[in-house]
Amino acid sequence: MTTVPTERRPNRPLRKSFSPSAVTAGFVAVAISYAGPMLVVLQAAQSAGLSAERTTSWVWSLAVASGVTCVVLSLVTRQPIVVAWSVPGAALLLTALGNYEYSDAIGAYVVAALLALIVGVTGWFGRLLAIVPKPVMAAVLAGVLLPFVLKAVEAVVTSPIVAGGLVVAFLIGRRITPRYAVLVAMAVGVALSALTGQAHAPDLALDLSGPVWTTPTFDFQAIMGIAVPLVIVTMAGQNGPGLAMMGTLGYKVNDKLVLGGASLAWLVSAPLGSHGINLAAITAGICAGPEAHPDKDRRYMAGIFCGVFYILFGLFSSAAVTLFSAVPAAMMAALAGVALLGALHGSLIDTISDFKANPVAAEAALITLVVTASGVAPAGIVSPFWGLLAGSVAYLALRRYRGKA
User: Fold this and answer.
1) How far apart are CA 103 and CA 94, in angstroms?
2) How far apart are CA 26 and CA 37, in angstroms?
3) CA distance 237 to 241
4) Which of 191, 151, 140 is nearest to 36 (CA)?
5) pTM for this prediction
6) Helix runs in 36-123, H state only
7) What is the torsion angle, in degrees rounded to the nearest 10, for the CA atoms of residue 247, residue 114, residue 216 and residue 218?
8) What's the DSSP call for residue 295?
9) Which among 168, 30, 162, 88 has a CA at the least distance from the CA of 377?
10) Alpha-carbon span 336 to 206, nearest angstrom
11) CA quadruple 400, 401, 402, 405: dihedral positive or negative?
C-alpha cells in the first residue's frame, strides 16, 4: 500500500451525496461492532475487575473517539474512512489487563498510541505494506473476512427461521433492489426474531455517564506486556487489513493521514480508557462496498453516518450494549455475513487474479489465506500477522527457488 495523496473527488454538497443506503450501511457497521467486538471489551473489563465507572468510560471513549474520527476523516478525504477499536487488542487484554495497576495500563495505552502515531505519520507502515505483493495482502483480507461469512452458514443451520429468513430476504433484495438488500435483510431478521421470541425486550436505562480521566503512570513491565504486543496486533491485525480493504474496493488511501488521524484519536482518548483506535476492516467493507452506494464517490456518506451512530451510541453506552445484546447472535452473524459478501468477493478475486501472470505470488497468497483464516494466534499475536509473515516468506522462498531453477 503506497503513500499517495488523497484522491481528488467532486466537491459535491453533502445533501446531494445523501442516500438511505449510506445511512443503513453506517448503522449496520455500528450494530455489528456493538453486537460483537464491543462484547470482547466488556469481557476484558469484567475479567480485570474494573468498576462500572471505568468500564463505561472505556466504552464511551472507544465509541466517541471512533465516531469523531470517522466523521472528520470521511469529510476531509471524501472517502468512507471507518475506524473502530482494536478487537485483537481487546482479546489480548482479556488475560493481560488484570496483571497490572490500571494507571500503568493506561500509561501503556499512551505509549502504544505514540508508537502507532509515529509508524503511521512517517509512512513506515505504508512503505512496509508496499513491499508485499498485492495477492498476498488481498489474501490477508480474504482470510479475515472468510470466517465471518462462514459463521453466517452456521447461523442458518442453528437458526433456520431467523438467520435463514434473513439470507433469503437478502437474496430477494439483491434481485429487486440491490442498494437496499442489507436493509431489507436486517428488517426481516428483526421481525422474525421478534415473531419467534428469540429477541427479548431490553431493559433500557438512559445512562448518560461520561468518561473518567485516569492519569497515566508508566511501568516498564506494563509497557512490555501491553504496549508492545498491542501495537503489533493493532497494526498487523487491523490497520493492515483495513488498508487492504480500501484498496480492494478501489480507493487510494493516504495512509499517513488516516493512520495518523486514527492514532491521534487513540492518544487523546487513552487516558479515558481507550485501548486502541485503528482502521476498521470488517465494518469498512460494509461502508465502502457497493451496498452503501453504487457510486464510489458518494460512499463517504456511509463513513460519516457510521461516525454519527458511533457518537450517539457512545453517549448512551450502557443502553446501546443492552439493546444489541437483546438481538439473537444468529441474526447478527447472518447479517454480518451477507453484508460482507461483496468485500469477500473482491478480495478473493485479487488473491487469485494474477495466477497465470505471477504464479509464485498466487501460491504465496493461498498460503496466506489458509494461515489467516485458521485463526491461529501463537504468542498471543493474531492470525493476520502470521498469515502475512507466512505468505511473505513463502513468496521470497518460491521466487528464489524458481529463479535458480
Assistant:
1) 17
2) 16
3) 7
4) 151
5) 0.72
6) 37-47, 52-77, 87-96, 102-121
7) 120
8) S
9) 88
10) 27
11) positive
* Angle ∠(66,68,73) on CA atoms, nearest 5: 95
What is the spatial distance between Cα 56 and Cα 273, in angstroms, rounded to a whole number? Answer: 9
Q: Which three cell numbers stand for residue 10?
A: 467532486
pLDDT in tens, 19-59: 888 898 898 888 878 766 776 687 678 778 888 788 888 98
Distance CA 215, CA 348 (A): 45
Name the amino acid, one letter, at 156.
V
At position 60, the amino acid (one-letter code) is W
Q: Which three cell numbers stand for residue 320?
A: 446501546
Grid coordinates standing for 325? 445484546
**Contact predicate 96/226, CB 8 Å:** yes
How far apart are the C-alpha atoms of 29 and 383, rounded to whole Å?
23
For the record, the C-alpha cell of 260 comes out as 495518523
Report the run of H or E that residue 34 belongs to, with start and end: helix 20-35
- How many whole angstroms separate alpha carbon 58 and alpha carbon 60? 5
Find out whether 12 and 61 touch, Cβ atoms under 8 Å.
Answer: no
Cell numbers 479515558 correspond to 272
What is the Cα Rg of the chain in Å? 20
Residue with cell 465509541: 63
- pLDDT for 72-97, tens place per residue? 999 999 999 999 988 777 777 876 78
- Determine if residue 380 is left, alpha or beta; phi over 0 gives left, psi from -120 to 50 gives alpha, anything else beta: left
In the predicted model, residues of the chain with pLDDT beneath 70 are 1-16, 35-36, 39-40, 43, 95, 179, 200-209, 318, 320-325, 379-382, 401-405
CA distance 258 to 73: 7
